[in-house]
Amino acid sequence: MTARPQEKQTKRKSNQNSWKSNLEESISSTWEDIREIGDQRRSHLSNRTTYVLDDAIHFLSELPPNSIHAVVTDPPYGVIEYEDKHHQKLRSGRGGVWRIPPSFDGVKRSPLPRFTVLSEDELNRLSSFFSALAYGLHRALVPGGHVFMAANPLLSSMVFHAFQTAGFEKRGEVIRLVQTLRGGDRPKGAEKEFSDVSMMARSCWEPWGMFRKPFSGPASTNLRTWGTGGLRRISDTEPFKDVILCSPTRGREREIAPHPSLKPQRFLRQVVRAALPLGIGIIYDPFAGSGSTLAAAEAVGYRAIGTDRDAQYFGIGTKAFSSLSTLDINK
């Protein structure tokens, strides 16, 4: 006897509730385990958020395989700028790879790492570092899990290649349109003599690499099994887009979290939300810094765990979390 349309609809709804309930139960169990892994110092910032003081590569080695569902991070993509000797020079306000630029049109410019001065050895170390990171993330991510990773036009090709070599599928780039004060300067010490010359183009965009751990079978099966494989739509009529217009981080956010590469909540919340297609799963930020990714995940209702090896940034992030996560981004 053929089932009636209403009976078919009821059966489909029951099946959906079954696999989704099983998935949510599995994620909840994984979450309780991974937020307590290791004996490193940590702060449980909320029921959904944990920040661990640890090196990302070490922490990834302790995570079980297939335990996180997405990664959103702004890494130290020059690597050397966060070495102790350069970091201390940044904090003292002079020297090292960090350039403390002059004011421009009355605007005080933030310190910028000078990636154009990296030596061949430093570039090789950069490649090795991101290869280790990529392999660690590939192991820890569930099939279909996405990685969103900030970069810059000078180094993105090298960094992104490391992820493709590790087995990730490149799924494009999210372009953040942002008018920064990077580049556009005249030759140092000869500004008047070469007044019509800029040494670099003024930066107006920021690339975020978008990668996915491969999965087998249809996307629908992966979504039911792991909750991953796609991107969460903005609405029924609007998909997530790969170009986001977002101004530099200023004002209140920098007061809350004084980190040299703080990304704005208005941008991060959009990316974090898109990273979990069903709105369930665990976000990981290997370089949590100010805690901005963790705060964005909290704001959209996701579970998130972050790591950073710098005790000062760990302190900034734990202190800033509550204010960042509740910040009204529409003002």
Detailed description of the structure:
- With 331 residues, this protein is α/β, with parallel strands linked by helices.
- The protein has one domain (23-82, 126-325): Vaccinia Virus protein VP39 (Rossmann fold).
- Helix content is 38%, strand content 18%.
- It is built from 10 helices and 11 strands.
- The chain has helices at 5-34, 56-62, 84-92, 120-140, 156-165, 219-226, 252-256, 265-275, 292-300, 311-325, and strands spanning 42-46, 49-53, 68-73, 98-99, 112-113, 141-150, 169-177, 205-212, 243-245, 282-285, 303-308.
- Strands 1-2-11-10-3-6-8-7-9 form a 9-stranded mixed beta sheet, with helices on both faces. It has a two-stranded antiparallel sheet with strand order 4-5.
- Strand 10 (282-285), helix 9 and strand 11 (303-308) form a beta-alpha-beta unit.
- The longest helix has 30 residues, at 5-34.
- Mean pLDDT is 88; it is low at 100-109.
